[in-house]
Amino acid sequence: MNKSLKSVIDFGRMPIANAFLAPEEFASEYFYDMVVGYDRATDAIGLVNTVPPEK
Question: Name one Pfam family in it (predicted).
Answer without folding.
Answer: Methyltransf_13
